[in-house]
Amino acid sequence: MTPSYLIYISFAAVCLLLLALPFVPAFSEWLYPTDAAPLPVSARYTSDIDHFARRLRADAMAKLGSGPATGYEEFDFVTDSATDMEWRKAGKRLIARTGISSSASVRTVQPLYVDGSLQTGPGSSFSAVYAAGDIDLGPQSGISDWAHADGVVRLGSNSIGLRRISAGTAINLGTETWFERLHAPVMRFGRHVSPAPPLQPYEQTPASCADLPGAIRQAPELYLIRGDCALPPGKIYHGSLVVTGFLTVGAATTVVGDIKAREGASIRSRACVRGALTCEKRIHVYADARVRGPVISEGDVLIGAGATIGQADAPTTVSAVNIIAEEGVTVYGTLWAHEIGMVKPL
Length: 346
Fold this sequence. Notes:
4 helices; flat; 346 residues; single chain; mainly beta; 2 domains
Protein backbone atom coordinates (compact mmCIF):
# COMPACT_ATOMS: atom_id res chain seq x y z
CA MET A 1 0.00 0.00 0.00
CA THR A 2 1.32 3.42 -0.99
CA PRO A 3 2.24 5.63 1.98
CA SER A 4 -0.16 8.54 2.45
CA TYR A 5 2.61 11.15 2.34
CA LEU A 6 3.53 10.02 -1.20
CA ILE A 7 -0.04 10.57 -2.30
CA TYR A 8 0.03 14.13 -0.92
CA ILE A 9 3.38 14.83 -2.58
CA SER A 10 2.12 13.51 -5.92
CA PHE A 11 -1.04 15.60 -5.66
CA ALA A 12 0.96 18.74 -4.83
CA ALA A 13 3.34 18.09 -7.75
CA VAL A 14 0.45 17.71 -10.20
CA CYS A 15 -1.14 20.96 -8.92
CA LEU A 16 2.14 22.84 -9.26
CA LEU A 17 2.60 21.48 -12.79
CA LEU A 18 -0.88 22.61 -13.82
CA LEU A 19 -0.28 26.06 -12.34
CA ALA A 20 3.09 26.39 -14.07
CA LEU A 21 2.01 25.30 -17.54
CA PRO A 22 0.44 28.67 -18.52
CA PHE A 23 3.70 30.44 -17.69
CA VAL A 24 5.88 28.22 -19.87
CA PRO A 25 5.46 30.36 -23.07
CA ALA A 26 6.27 33.56 -21.15
CA PHE A 27 9.32 31.98 -19.52
CA SER A 28 10.49 30.66 -22.88
CA GLU A 29 10.06 34.09 -24.48
CA TRP A 30 12.02 35.67 -21.63
CA LEU A 31 14.93 33.24 -22.15
CA TYR A 32 14.85 33.28 -25.96
CA PRO A 33 13.08 36.45 -27.21
CA THR A 34 11.40 36.12 -30.60
CA ASP A 35 9.55 39.48 -30.59
CA ALA A 36 12.23 41.94 -29.48
CA ALA A 37 11.99 44.27 -32.49
CA PRO A 38 10.12 47.58 -32.05
CA LEU A 39 6.63 47.88 -33.48
CA PRO A 40 6.63 49.42 -36.96
CA VAL A 41 5.40 53.02 -37.01
CA SER A 42 4.58 54.69 -40.30
CA ALA A 43 7.18 57.31 -41.19
CA ARG A 44 4.41 59.39 -42.71
CA TYR A 45 2.61 59.46 -39.36
CA THR A 46 5.67 60.53 -37.38
CA SER A 47 7.21 63.05 -39.78
CA ASP A 48 4.26 64.56 -41.67
CA ILE A 49 2.26 67.03 -39.64
CA ASP A 50 -0.56 66.95 -42.21
CA HIS A 51 -0.81 63.13 -42.33
CA PHE A 52 -4.39 62.98 -40.98
CA ALA A 53 -5.46 65.94 -43.12
CA ARG A 54 -4.36 64.20 -46.31
CA ARG A 55 -6.19 61.04 -45.27
CA LEU A 56 -9.42 62.95 -44.67
CA ARG A 57 -9.09 64.79 -47.98
CA ALA A 58 -8.53 61.52 -49.85
CA ASP A 59 -11.66 60.01 -48.29
CA ALA A 60 -13.70 63.14 -49.03
CA MET A 61 -12.51 63.29 -52.65
CA ALA A 62 -13.50 59.64 -53.10
CA LYS A 63 -16.96 60.41 -51.70
CA LEU A 64 -17.30 63.39 -54.07
CA GLY A 65 -16.22 61.25 -57.03
CA SER A 66 -13.04 63.23 -57.61
CA GLY A 67 -10.53 60.64 -56.44
CA PRO A 68 -9.85 56.90 -56.22
CA ALA A 69 -11.75 54.79 -53.73
CA THR A 70 -10.21 54.51 -50.27
CA GLY A 71 -12.73 52.25 -48.56
CA TYR A 72 -13.53 54.95 -45.98
CA GLU A 73 -15.98 57.12 -47.88
CA GLU A 74 -18.72 57.18 -45.25
CA PHE A 75 -19.76 60.82 -44.75
CA ASP A 76 -22.78 63.02 -44.15
CA PHE A 77 -23.22 66.26 -46.07
CA VAL A 78 -23.73 69.74 -44.62
CA THR A 79 -27.03 70.61 -46.29
CA ASP A 80 -28.24 73.50 -44.12
CA SER A 81 -26.73 76.89 -43.42
CA ALA A 82 -24.16 77.02 -40.65
CA THR A 83 -26.67 78.59 -38.23
CA ASP A 84 -29.42 76.05 -38.99
CA MET A 85 -27.21 72.97 -39.07
CA GLU A 86 -27.60 70.66 -36.06
CA TRP A 87 -23.88 70.09 -35.71
CA ARG A 88 -24.03 68.16 -32.44
CA LYS A 89 -26.33 65.52 -33.91
CA ALA A 90 -23.91 64.55 -36.69
CA GLY A 91 -23.10 60.85 -36.44
CA LYS A 92 -20.58 60.64 -39.27
CA ARG A 93 -17.76 62.69 -40.71
CA LEU A 94 -19.04 65.77 -42.54
CA ILE A 95 -18.50 67.28 -45.99
CA ALA A 96 -19.42 70.86 -46.90
CA ARG A 97 -19.60 71.21 -50.69
CA THR A 98 -19.12 74.98 -50.42
CA GLY A 99 -17.44 77.34 -48.00
CA ILE A 100 -18.95 78.07 -44.59
CA SER A 101 -19.30 81.60 -43.22
CA SER A 102 -21.03 82.25 -39.91
CA SER A 103 -20.87 85.04 -37.36
CA ALA A 104 -22.13 82.56 -34.76
CA SER A 105 -20.13 79.74 -33.23
CA VAL A 106 -19.94 76.32 -34.87
CA ARG A 107 -19.31 73.25 -32.69
CA THR A 108 -18.90 69.69 -33.90
CA VAL A 109 -17.08 66.60 -32.69
CA GLN A 110 -17.07 65.04 -36.16
CA PRO A 111 -14.17 65.64 -38.57
CA LEU A 112 -15.21 68.25 -41.15
CA TYR A 113 -14.06 68.68 -44.75
CA VAL A 114 -14.87 72.06 -46.32
CA ASP A 115 -14.52 72.47 -50.08
CA GLY A 116 -13.81 76.17 -49.67
CA SER A 117 -13.09 78.49 -46.75
CA LEU A 118 -14.36 78.18 -43.18
CA GLN A 119 -15.14 81.31 -41.17
CA THR A 120 -16.88 81.11 -37.78
CA GLY A 121 -17.66 83.29 -34.80
CA PRO A 122 -16.29 83.27 -31.25
CA GLY A 123 -16.42 80.09 -29.20
CA SER A 124 -16.30 77.67 -32.13
CA SER A 125 -15.00 74.16 -31.54
CA PHE A 126 -13.76 71.42 -33.87
CA SER A 127 -12.12 68.06 -33.37
CA ALA A 128 -10.59 67.93 -36.86
CA VAL A 129 -11.12 70.23 -39.84
CA TYR A 130 -9.76 70.52 -43.38
CA ALA A 131 -10.50 73.54 -45.58
CA ALA A 132 -9.57 73.82 -49.25
CA GLY A 133 -9.42 77.58 -48.67
CA ASP A 134 -8.79 79.42 -45.39
CA ILE A 135 -9.74 78.63 -41.79
CA ASP A 136 -10.69 81.70 -39.76
CA LEU A 137 -11.98 81.01 -36.25
CA GLY A 138 -13.11 83.73 -33.88
CA PRO A 139 -11.76 84.34 -30.36
CA GLN A 140 -12.02 81.64 -27.69
CA SER A 141 -12.27 78.88 -30.28
CA GLY A 142 -10.73 75.45 -29.99
CA ILE A 143 -9.24 72.63 -32.07
CA SER A 144 -8.85 69.41 -30.12
CA ASP A 145 -7.18 67.15 -32.69
CA TRP A 146 -5.88 68.74 -35.88
CA ALA A 147 -6.59 71.39 -38.52
CA HIS A 148 -5.29 72.09 -42.01
CA ALA A 149 -6.03 74.77 -44.59
CA ASP A 150 -4.65 74.96 -48.08
CA GLY A 151 -4.60 78.72 -47.52
CA VAL A 152 -4.28 80.49 -44.15
CA VAL A 153 -5.23 79.29 -40.66
CA ARG A 154 -6.25 82.08 -38.27
CA LEU A 155 -7.15 81.54 -34.63
CA GLY A 156 -8.53 84.46 -32.63
CA SER A 157 -7.27 85.47 -29.21
CA ASN A 158 -7.69 83.14 -26.21
CA SER A 159 -8.07 80.12 -28.47
CA ILE A 160 -6.66 76.61 -28.11
CA GLY A 161 -5.05 74.76 -31.01
CA LEU A 162 -3.97 71.37 -29.73
CA ARG A 163 -2.10 68.60 -31.51
CA ARG A 164 -1.35 69.47 -35.16
CA ILE A 165 -2.15 72.61 -37.14
CA SER A 166 -0.79 73.10 -40.64
CA ALA A 167 -1.38 75.47 -43.55
CA GLY A 168 -0.30 75.79 -47.14
CA THR A 169 0.23 79.57 -46.90
CA ALA A 170 0.41 80.86 -43.31
CA ILE A 171 -0.71 80.45 -39.70
CA ASN A 172 -1.75 83.48 -37.64
CA LEU A 173 -2.39 83.03 -33.92
CA GLY A 174 -4.01 85.64 -31.67
CA THR A 175 -2.73 86.61 -28.23
CA GLU A 176 -3.03 84.14 -25.36
CA THR A 177 -3.63 81.33 -27.81
CA TRP A 178 -2.24 77.92 -26.81
CA PHE A 179 -0.65 75.56 -29.31
CA GLU A 180 1.47 72.43 -29.64
CA ARG A 181 2.67 71.60 -33.16
CA LEU A 182 2.51 74.05 -36.07
CA HIS A 183 3.74 73.95 -39.65
CA ALA A 184 3.41 76.52 -42.43
CA PRO A 185 5.65 78.54 -44.76
CA VAL A 186 5.26 81.42 -42.30
CA MET A 187 3.73 81.66 -38.80
CA ARG A 188 2.87 84.97 -37.12
CA PHE A 189 1.99 85.43 -33.48
CA GLY A 190 -0.26 88.16 -32.11
CA ARG A 191 -0.50 91.62 -33.59
CA HIS A 192 2.16 93.01 -35.89
CA VAL A 193 5.10 94.73 -34.22
CA SER A 194 7.27 97.12 -36.25
CA PRO A 195 10.70 95.51 -36.57
CA ALA A 196 13.86 97.29 -35.56
CA PRO A 197 15.80 98.90 -38.43
CA PRO A 198 18.45 96.65 -39.99
CA LEU A 199 21.96 96.86 -38.62
CA GLN A 200 24.38 99.10 -40.48
CA PRO A 201 27.98 98.04 -41.19
CA TYR A 202 29.38 100.65 -38.83
CA GLU A 203 27.33 99.19 -35.95
CA GLN A 204 29.39 95.98 -35.88
CA THR A 205 33.14 95.48 -35.70
CA PRO A 206 34.90 92.23 -36.69
CA ALA A 207 36.02 89.97 -33.84
CA SER A 208 37.62 86.53 -33.57
CA CYS A 209 36.33 83.55 -31.61
CA ALA A 210 39.96 82.70 -30.87
CA ASP A 211 40.22 85.84 -28.72
CA LEU A 212 37.38 84.80 -26.39
CA PRO A 213 38.54 83.90 -22.86
CA GLY A 214 39.28 80.17 -22.60
CA ALA A 215 38.63 79.48 -26.31
CA ILE A 216 40.04 76.14 -27.50
CA ARG A 217 40.23 75.59 -31.23
CA GLN A 218 38.70 72.21 -32.17
CA ALA A 219 38.60 72.70 -35.96
CA PRO A 220 39.31 75.54 -38.37
CA GLU A 221 35.89 77.13 -37.67
CA LEU A 222 34.93 75.49 -34.35
CA TYR A 223 35.84 76.65 -30.84
CA LEU A 224 35.18 75.09 -27.42
CA ILE A 225 34.76 77.22 -24.30
CA ARG A 226 34.59 75.55 -20.91
CA GLY A 227 32.32 77.47 -18.56
CA ASP A 228 30.26 80.55 -19.32
CA CYS A 229 30.82 82.77 -22.34
CA ALA A 230 29.64 86.31 -23.10
CA LEU A 231 30.05 87.81 -26.55
CA PRO A 232 30.26 91.61 -26.27
CA PRO A 233 27.69 93.77 -28.11
CA GLY A 234 28.18 95.19 -31.56
CA LYS A 235 30.55 92.50 -32.87
CA ILE A 236 30.56 89.99 -35.72
CA TYR A 237 32.09 86.55 -35.24
CA HIS A 238 32.81 83.92 -37.89
CA GLY A 239 32.84 80.35 -36.60
CA SER A 240 30.84 77.92 -34.49
CA LEU A 241 30.88 77.76 -30.69
CA VAL A 242 30.43 74.95 -28.17
CA VAL A 243 29.99 76.30 -24.64
CA THR A 244 29.80 74.04 -21.59
CA GLY A 245 28.26 76.81 -19.47
CA PHE A 246 25.85 79.66 -20.19
CA LEU A 247 26.21 81.65 -23.42
CA THR A 248 25.23 85.29 -23.92
CA VAL A 249 25.30 86.85 -27.38
CA GLY A 250 25.45 90.61 -26.86
CA ALA A 251 23.03 93.09 -28.40
CA ALA A 252 23.54 93.74 -32.12
CA THR A 253 26.19 90.98 -32.32
CA THR A 254 26.21 88.47 -35.18
CA VAL A 255 27.55 84.91 -35.10
CA VAL A 256 28.13 83.45 -38.54
CA GLY A 257 28.02 79.80 -37.51
CA ASP A 258 26.31 77.34 -35.19
CA ILE A 259 25.99 77.58 -31.41
CA LYS A 260 25.66 74.84 -28.81
CA ALA A 261 25.40 75.68 -25.11
CA ARG A 262 24.85 73.34 -22.18
CA GLU A 263 23.56 75.57 -19.37
CA GLY A 264 21.40 77.99 -21.39
CA ALA A 265 21.63 80.67 -24.05
CA SER A 266 20.60 84.31 -24.27
CA ILE A 267 20.41 86.01 -27.66
CA ARG A 268 20.11 89.73 -26.92
CA SER A 269 18.11 92.35 -28.80
CA ARG A 270 18.99 92.74 -32.49
CA ALA A 271 21.59 89.96 -32.26
CA CYS A 272 21.73 87.37 -35.02
CA VAL A 273 22.78 83.72 -35.20
CA ARG A 274 23.17 82.64 -38.81
CA GLY A 275 23.26 78.95 -38.00
CA ALA A 276 21.67 76.50 -35.58
CA LEU A 277 21.08 77.23 -31.89
CA THR A 278 21.06 74.13 -29.66
CA CYS A 279 20.86 74.05 -25.88
CA GLU A 280 20.25 71.54 -23.08
CA LYS A 281 18.42 74.17 -21.01
CA ARG A 282 16.47 77.38 -21.58
CA ILE A 283 16.95 79.56 -24.65
CA HIS A 284 15.88 83.22 -24.59
CA VAL A 285 15.75 84.98 -27.95
CA TYR A 286 15.21 88.66 -27.13
CA ALA A 287 13.12 91.22 -29.03
CA ASP A 288 14.14 91.87 -32.65
CA ALA A 289 16.79 89.13 -32.55
CA ARG A 290 17.15 86.65 -35.40
CA VAL A 291 18.13 83.00 -35.69
CA ARG A 292 18.33 81.58 -39.19
CA GLY A 293 18.83 77.90 -38.37
CA PRO A 294 17.01 75.44 -36.11
CA VAL A 295 16.37 76.36 -32.46
CA ILE A 296 16.42 73.20 -30.34
CA SER A 297 16.15 73.09 -26.55
CA GLU A 298 15.64 70.29 -24.02
CA GLY A 299 14.06 72.95 -21.81
CA ASP A 300 12.05 76.05 -22.69
CA VAL A 301 12.31 78.59 -25.49
CA LEU A 302 11.23 82.20 -25.04
CA ILE A 303 10.99 84.37 -28.17
CA GLY A 304 10.71 88.14 -27.76
CA ALA A 305 8.54 90.60 -29.69
CA GLY A 306 9.62 91.17 -33.28
CA ALA A 307 12.11 88.28 -33.27
CA THR A 308 12.43 86.10 -36.38
CA ILE A 309 13.33 82.41 -36.65
CA GLY A 310 14.21 81.05 -40.08
CA GLN A 311 13.79 82.77 -43.43
CA ALA A 312 11.16 82.76 -46.15
CA ASP A 313 13.52 80.92 -48.52
CA ALA A 314 15.00 78.70 -45.78
CA PRO A 315 12.32 77.38 -43.37
CA THR A 316 13.57 75.83 -40.16
CA THR A 317 12.40 74.22 -36.90
CA VAL A 318 11.84 75.38 -33.32
CA SER A 319 11.54 72.50 -30.85
CA ALA A 320 11.35 72.66 -27.04
CA VAL A 321 9.41 71.35 -24.06
CA ASN A 322 7.56 74.67 -23.70
CA ILE A 323 7.55 77.62 -26.10
CA ILE A 324 6.44 81.17 -25.33
CA ALA A 325 6.25 83.57 -28.28
CA GLU A 326 5.49 87.25 -27.73
CA GLU A 327 3.43 89.34 -30.10
CA GLY A 328 5.14 90.16 -33.37
CA VAL A 329 7.21 86.95 -33.55
CA THR A 330 7.64 85.38 -36.99
CA VAL A 331 8.71 81.78 -37.56
CA TYR A 332 9.26 80.14 -40.93
CA GLY A 333 8.76 76.37 -41.03
CA THR A 334 7.85 74.17 -38.07
CA LEU A 335 7.28 74.92 -34.41
CA TRP A 336 6.87 72.07 -31.92
CA ALA A 337 6.10 72.58 -28.23
CA HIS A 338 6.31 69.05 -26.78
CA GLU A 339 4.17 70.05 -23.80
CA ILE A 340 2.60 73.45 -24.45
CA GLY A 341 3.13 76.72 -26.30
CA MET A 342 1.56 80.14 -25.79
CA VAL A 343 1.31 83.51 -27.52
CA LYS A 344 2.18 86.09 -24.87
CA PRO A 345 0.76 89.62 -25.12
CA LEU A 346 3.10 92.57 -24.69
